[in-house]
Amino acid sequence: MIPRPVSVRPSPGSVAPHAGVHARIDPALAPEGYVLDCAPGGIDLRGGSEAGLFYGRQTLRQLQPSVPCGRIEDAPRFRWRGVLLDVARHFMPVPDVLRFIDLIAYHKLNVLHLHLTDDQGWRIEVPGWPRLTSVGAWRSESMLGARRHARYDGTPHGGFYTTADLRRIVAYAARRHVTVVPEVDMPGHMQAAIAAYPHLGNGYTGPVRTAWGVSPHVLNHEPATLDFCRQVLDHVCDVFGSELIGIGGDECPGDPAEQARFTARIAEHLAARGRRVYGWDEILAGGAPPGAVIAAWRGPEPAEAAIRAGHQVVCCPDVQLYLDYRQSDDPGEPTPVGTRLTWADVYGFEPPDHPLVLGAQANIWTEHMESLRRVEYMAFPRLCAFAEVVWGPAERDLADFTARLPAHLARLDALGVNYRPLTGPRPGDARAHAPGHPRTLADRLAELREMIANR
Asked: Does the predicted model carry a pTM greater than 0.70?
């Protein structure tokens, strides 16, 4: 839900229904902090910046229709309060992305990590490389359910964002104090680009990947391919204002030392543009570039390894913050994959207490989410719990959150959000034609340890 304010000092009465709000910036406050003084005759809102004023207004939205009198003092605990949205596996039209930005901003989240490319689709136009979108943005069909079932829908799928589309998304997010961090995965997860331009790969001349999972068809490290990557990232830097640029670096078969050299060259190029690398924790193998920020996803150990290496970290462990994982053991859950992850489990997540930890990020991978409506079902109310984790203090009360949650779900009802009911999935939520592959927590943790050991 909208994170509960850090300090609330109530006083008798409530604000008159038509009382005004006087808003002003107070440099003495933390940049994202705010203070609300609510009296019968009106509301005084002070924010450390425009962002602080914005978050104060979100709190006022939560308090409607009857705003109690008193003082609220509030500021976030973490700088990075993020969500990854995968638009590569299933393309999301611009209005859907804007709608999703509204919903995360309402919950005081401030980073949208936009996963723009993968083996199954390339979603960003790049000047001089037209086949990235005419070929790479389209696949002939999509898998239905988990890979082990080998089912396909037989329906072409695709789409891409023009430069104007992306600028619109970035500007829309900025007005809501959300930074859009783009990701172009490299050197792995590149089959869509290689399908468009086979000389970028190592002999593959086939189509965009239709199966989920990791493709063995990755970029070669020839000078021409590195020039391609630089041109793509130059365009990304021209469109996105984020200091951090996602380059993936995950799940790439091959020599970790060779990949480290590739990543170092890319990091040098981004540094010349005043940007820094944001990469998955696999880039730690062989040594991550200086200044790189690590997205630690393979359990808790990579965050600790990144800290030891002196890198800033965003925590996004899959067994605690991957919102494509199933929400219960109910057979009616849509395409149940991964370990069971309830909203209470998400509420119990706590990032390491260390100055190098920027914050945390919940990841929404969309292999099994073909629409925004499905994304909303998988995201909420788990994203409500996550918002409290990254905004408020480490000391949290699950019973208190549980008691407040129904009232917040009523707000989501008013916004038309297709959240998962607390009582469980509805009959129409199931995807019997797209069966899943549930996992136990113990099995998944064992897999993650093996992945780390093999790198």
From this structure: yes
The DSSP bridge pattern shows strands 34-39 and 42-47 to be antiparallel
**pLDDT of res. 1:** 67
Task: State yes or no: is 251 an active-site residue.
Answer: yes
Distance, CA of 307 to CA of 311 (rounded, Å): 5
SS3 18: coil
Distance of CA 79 to the CA centre of its chain: 15
Backbone angles phi, psi at 63, to 5 degrees: -80, -15
- The beta-strand segments (E) located in 297-370 are 312-315, 337-338, 357-364
- With vertex at residue 106, the alpha carbon angle to CA 101 and CA 110, rounded to the nearest 5 degrees, is 60
Give the residue-averaged pLDDT of 411-436.
Answer: 96
268 vs 274: CA distance, rounded Å: 10
pLDDT digits (tens, 9 = 90+) for 40-89: 999 999 999 999 999 999 999 999 888 999 999 999 999 999 999 999 99
DSSP letter for each residue of 226-295: HHHHHHHHHHHHHH---SEEEEE--S--S-HHHHHHHHHHHHHHHHHTT-EEEEEGGGGTT-PPTTPEEE
Alpha-carbon span 431 to 211, nearest angstrom: 18
Question: Where are the alpha helices (H) located in 6-142, listed in sequence order?
Answer: 50-63, 94-106, 131-134
Query: Rounded to whole angstroms, how far apart are CA atoms 340 and 326?
Result: 5
What distance in Å separates the CA atoms of residue 137 and residue 93, rounded to the nearest whole number?
A: 13
Which of 139, 187, 103 lies closest to 387, judged by CA? 103
Catalytic one of 251, 301, 304, 447:
251
All domains of the chain, ordered by start, with CATH?
7-74 (3.30.379.10), 80-454 (3.20.20.80)
Percentage of residues in the chain having pLDDT higher than 70: 100
pLDDT band at 455 (very low <50, low <70, confident <90, very high): low
Structure tokens at 378: 């998988």
HSE on the CB side for 128, CA within 13 Å?
8
Alpha-carbon span 257 to 285, nearest angstrom: 7
**Contact between residue 252 and residue 282 where contact means Cβ atoms under 8 Å apart:** yes
pLDDT digits (tens, 9 = 90+) for 394-405: 999 999 999 999
